[in-house]
Amino acid sequence: MIVVLAEKPSVARDIARVLRCKERGDGFIKGDEYIVTWAVGHLVTLCEPDEISDQYKKWRMEDLPILPERIPTKVISKTRSQFSVIKKLINAPETEKIICATDAGREGELIFRYIYEQAKCKKPFDRLWISSMTDEAIKEGFSTLKSGTEYNNLFASARSRSEADWLVGMNASRAFTLRFNVLLSIGRVQTPTLAILVKRYKEIANFKPEEYHTLTAQFDGYSGLWFDPAVESDKKNHRIATAEKAQAIAKEIKGKRAVVQDVQVENKKELPPQLYDLTSLQREANKKLGFTADKTLKIAQELYEKWKAITYPRTDSRYLPMDMIGRAKLTLQKMPGAYQEHVKNIPWKEDGKLPFSKRIFDNAKVSDHHAIIPTPQTAPLDKLPPDAARLFDMIARRTIAAFYPAHEYDQTKIITNCESHSFRSTGKTVRINGWKDVYPADEKEEDQLPQLKTGDTATVQKTTVKKESTKPPAPHTDASLLAAMEHAGKELEDEELREQMKGSGLGTPATRAAIIERLIQVGYAARKGRTINATEKGVSLIDIAPPEIASPETTGKWELALNQIAKGERDTERFMQGIRRLSEFLIQYAKETKTETTFPEEMRKRGRGRTTKAKPVQAVDGIICPLCGKPVQETEKAFGCSDWKNGCHFTIWKNCLARSGGPLINEKLIKLILNDKQVRGSSGTLILQGQNLSFIKKGEETPSVTVSIQYERK
Questions:
Q1: How does pLDDT run across 107-126, given as a tens digit for each residue?
Q2: Integer CA distances (angstroms), 649 to 11, 59, 455, 692, in order
Q3: Which of 273, 418, 428, 561 lies in the 20 to 30 Å Cα band around 48?
Q4: Distances (CA, A) of 645 to 609, 652, 692
């Protein structure tokens, strides 16, 4: 018997169907040859410090640094039953081998290997590596399995990343928390990402607007903006310092004869946009659809897993391999009918072959997974939820547009002179619409200018003076923050590091959304509409954090090293030695820093090691603790038992379901949950069973998230 281990139940069901496994068991699906089982994301994780040694139960500076040679792992308690199922199956005498079918990437490899090691399994295993969840892709993947040992370097990279984040995060967070007497969370990727937000926060806070005026002249059939030829910058040379000067120029030229001094016509090409990787998809979905990065990732994952409509979304490549030319042609031909008119207008070759270029197909630029495109399985547009349909539409149009010709136009620039004053006019004339035919015409095109030549004359019919002022930098959005994370090293002075950061940046495409949400969750950043701003607490943290943890340079070095480990080009021990040195440095820095700051979201009692929330605790009428029967109270971030000082750990965090699409817990909802045990709403169903609260999305069978209602206070 062969055991197949998938990462999620939904993926396991698809694989089981393809392998003809139909007999359902407790945590698995069985067939004649295969048994398919599943994790629920991570089933095994690294132990907490106090689980390694009792001395770490209390946070004390003298116990730092915590630097175990190997950080032990543990089974996550809330999913222990499923781990037990897997352990029994993979170690069963009749099991010949195992197939790792977790997500094909660094984190998926870590999930499988941690389970495999924790179960003390010694059976051989193969690796399934696929980029699509269609039946055909699964069948092809099973016909081309590779030995699991071929991915040992990928696991080494994944484990190094996991342990490095633990060492730095755990030591730095404890050290800075103890030094500043307030709970602080510090991380390798989280903190430099926060630094990007804080930098923009300070640029906006310190910005001083400058007033200026502009002057527009209306000639015969076109208009021109006054500019000073002596000022080189086109962004500044149209500014007139005072209203008096602008009005004087307007009065001087009104009704006067003007002469066309120069006409420049430049033919320009705008190449088709490249295919999406995850980060570019998240950025564009934020700009066009208003989706957060986290929402885009969840919808893309659903399009991949549930609807089989797109290929694997957690990719960092915008290219396809050369051997996918035939499959790309089939994908286009199988697109839903709404897109077939655009597919037909692709400039197909005479022999019916698909046109291609290095901007689409390039083996050298495909890493673990290729770009995101639709699958050859026609997407059921009539069944997709509205947001999923909108995201699929973006991916489908981008895939078609990539094969279209360039958008070509004439860019015209005219300089008109009147009474020794210069005026600039620009216009655009489309010659070939090209790939823009695939998209709705929602752009505001530049005005077309009349056919003019040098020496032509015109009369100033009207003048308009307008008061303007310089604008501060715009607050970050998901789109701009993702771009900043992706290109975080562009401002580094070290040229070699800049090159390294081009391929790494802060985080990975698969983790950037979670990093942004984490900053919001811990109170370092906040959303306002579509913008994301650093909070005062976040600013205070960056003020005390050393550059070694707040700069993208550190992460650039780490990501380069992790990529080299995955390729077998770097030794893991050398990397981990560097991590231990960094951890020691951060603790020493926290001990010795003379920097003082305040954290406005916390009221601190100096010398007593306690913090008190600024918002007072309030009792909630009409409900009692389900664990001990005492009254329930509300704090700023949670509902919990009023008898917590005597050991009752009942706690439900207000945002515990939000990241998985569930509602924020408010007073009305907590009463319904505790009194009725099951609550149905517009987004899904809440179920309180024993000591676990689960949220099941509408239309789904299994919980999107399950959280414990007990909180272990340190």
A1: 999 999 999 999 999 999 99
A2: 35, 20, 85, 13
A3: 561
A4: 16, 16, 22
Q: Measured between alpha carbons, how far is residue 152 from residues 105, 125, 582 in Å?
A: 12, 12, 26
| Cβ-contact 407, 433 below 8 angstroms | yes
DSSP-derived pairing of the beta strands 34-38 and 2-6:
parallel
Following CA atoms 686, 687, 693, 698 in sequence, which dihedral angle do they give, to the nearest 10 degrees?
A: -40
* Superfamily name with CATH number, domain 161-206+476-602: Topoisomerase I, domain 2 (1.10.460.10)
Query: Which tokens belong to 707?
Result: 């959280």
| Burial (Cβ within 10 Å: 0-12, 13-18, ≥19) of residue 615 | exposed
All residues at 6 or more sequence positions from 588 whose CB lies less than 8 Å from its CB, including other chains? none
Place of tokens 């340079």: 553
Q: Which of 34, 312, 319, 589 is catalytic?
A: 312
The CATH number, out of the four listed (3.40.50.1820, 3.40.830.10, 1.20.120.450, 2.70.20.10), of the domain defined by the range 211-271+407-469: 2.70.20.10
Spatial CA neighbour of 374 closest among 341, 345, 346, 402: 402
Alpha-helical regions (H) of 119-151: 135-143
Rounded CA separation 581/168 (Å): 10
Nearest-10 Cα torsion for 129, 130, 136, 139: 10
Helix (H/G/I), strand (E/B), else coil: 277: coil
| Residue in the structure block whose two tokens are 């509205």 | 386
Tell me the pLDDT tens digit for each residue of 268-307. Answer: 999 999 999 999 999 999 999 999 999 999 999 999 999 9
